[in-house]
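Figure 3 (text version): structure tokens given as input.
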């Protein structure tokens, strides 16, 4: 089947005739084929085999059911990585890519770096391919999430890894007992359960609630990490957390009120929202 014919068919299936449906069809095709967004539009004479056509049509059916496009095609881009994702893990977001930049800039090479609540393994694998650390440890409470993360590690070309990656099962910091870390990074659950109705349906109805919601008005996981991370980090070690902008002041106070932390700051994402809590372990052991 020619790509142009499949593009026309998808545009009809995905919504009323017009540019939005055609653009959505083009983007879906590009995602399944692993090409740049505009490649399908420029290569209409390309011949697609039956397996590819079936994969594209299956993804379109999933998309029509309300499933997020990343789940529909089974993959998501994160920095320089293409990760396998499904409903067992959160979809990696562009803003979380900045969390990796914070660690790469703030944690000197060498030592051990830990990624807590790793999900698909996005942060851990980015650090293990872009950083210069001795080891990367990734933890998650969900065995299903760790299965996805291990699969993403296995799919990587080993030559791209600059550090070995180890996955550990357990709640927040518990799997890190006995470690001495140069940096600890996390994108923990930070949405209050009462805020579920405010979320887009594509998030609320499809993504794992274990990775979205946290007790104590969304602050339970953040408080636990801030309180426990200081005992794991080496002097001067870096803590970097993604947070909810609505509770940035609470997150900042949680670290600023603890004498074990210094250089406590809130960093913005690319939209100017207060998105990240950053702190350093005091030099005193």
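Below: residues designed for each position.
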């Amino acid at each position: 089947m020619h790509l142009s014919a499949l593009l026309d068919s998808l545009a009809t299936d995905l919504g009323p005739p017009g540019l939005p449906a055609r653009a959505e069809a083009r983007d879906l095709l590009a995602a399944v084929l692993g090409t740049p967004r505009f490649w399908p539009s420029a290569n209409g004479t390309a011949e697609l085999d039956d397996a590819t056509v079936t994969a594209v049509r299956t993804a379109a059916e999933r998309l029509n059911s309300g499933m997020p496009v990343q789940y529909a095609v089974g993959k998501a881009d994160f920095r320089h990585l293409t990760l396998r994702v499904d409903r067992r893990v959160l979809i990696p977001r562009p803003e979380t890519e900045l969390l990796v930049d914070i660690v790469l800039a703030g944690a000197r090479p060498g030592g051990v770096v830990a990624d807590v609540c790793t999900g698909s393994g996005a942060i851990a694998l980015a650090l293990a391919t872009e950083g210069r650390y001795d080891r990367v440890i990734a933890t998650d409470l969900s065995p299903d999430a760790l299965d996805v993360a291990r699969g993403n590690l296995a799919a990587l070309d080993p030559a791209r890894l600059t550090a070995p990656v180890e996955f550990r099962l357990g709640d927040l910091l518990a799997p890190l007992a006995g470690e001495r870390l140069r940096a600890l990074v996390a994108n923990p659950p930070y949405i209050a359960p009462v805020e579920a109705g405010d979320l887009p349906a594509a998030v609320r109805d499809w993504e794992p609630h274990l990775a979205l919601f946290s007790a104590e008005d969304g602050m339970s996981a953040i408080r636990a990490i801030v309180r426990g991370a200081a005992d794991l980090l080496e002097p001067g070690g870096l803590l970097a957390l993604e947070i909810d902008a609505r509770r940035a002041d609470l997150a900042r106070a949680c670290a600023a009120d603890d004498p074990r932390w210094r250089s406590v700051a809130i960093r913005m994402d690319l939209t100017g929202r207060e998105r990240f809590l950053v702190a350093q372990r005091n030099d005193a052991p």
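The beta strands are 75-78, 81-84, 112-116, 135-140, 165-169, 181-186, 233-242, 261-268, 274-281.
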